[in-house]
Amino acid sequence: MRWLIVSGWLLILAGLVGCNVPSRPKMESEVLAPDQLLDFDALYGQNCAGCHGRDGRGGPAPSLGDPVYLALADDATIRRITTNGVSGTPMPAFAQSTGGSLTDKQIDILTSGMRSRWAKGKSLNGLNPPPYSSQEIGDSSRGAKAFAVYCAACHGANGTGGPKASSIVNGSFLALVSDQGLRTAIIAGRPELGFPSWRDDVPGKPMSAQDVSDVVAWMSAQRLKFPGQPYSPSSKAGQFP
User: Taking burial as the number of CB atoms within 10 A of a residue's CB, which of 17, 55, 70, 193 is the most buried?
Assistant: First the structure.
């Protein structure tokens, strides 16, 4: 009889212990290794949204969900920028081959996902934008005239700021953006900031490819040799004006 009672208690204890043993986690709750993540939303959210905004709507960096930008930059361009980054700007290299964390497959998923979700075939209304890059070197003197026509109404006569937009010749700004970045912004605009594209600066008069190259050359010529320097070259060391 005593043996039966002891056996019964042992069975009860075994059942209680068994209830506390954790079960095998379900597949959906398992954590994937970073290089196994293949979901566009998760990849974009972790790597791109902080600068380019949720759903590609723009933030500190330009909108990647802008149909004009996607019509301007082809897949090879987007893949190259994501892989290598842009030297001298806040855009880092993301590919593992260049020191980043993403595999080639993950970069392909980001590239194709942007195109399939945000590109719109009729967004240009039959107009062809100037090319993403140009072999033609712009002329800064012509660029000053083109700037007066297309840009001064918002950015001021000298680019130092106007009634609708801030300075675009600020030394710190120009130090953080490449010539290609300037070109892309002029062509695609920054719709999230109300900054018009190449076709909307002057109604009915889109900028030509040469106009864009010349304005970029003029803006590039405004860069300071030592951006951010808090004193004039003539000031003595340790003294500030």
Answer: 70
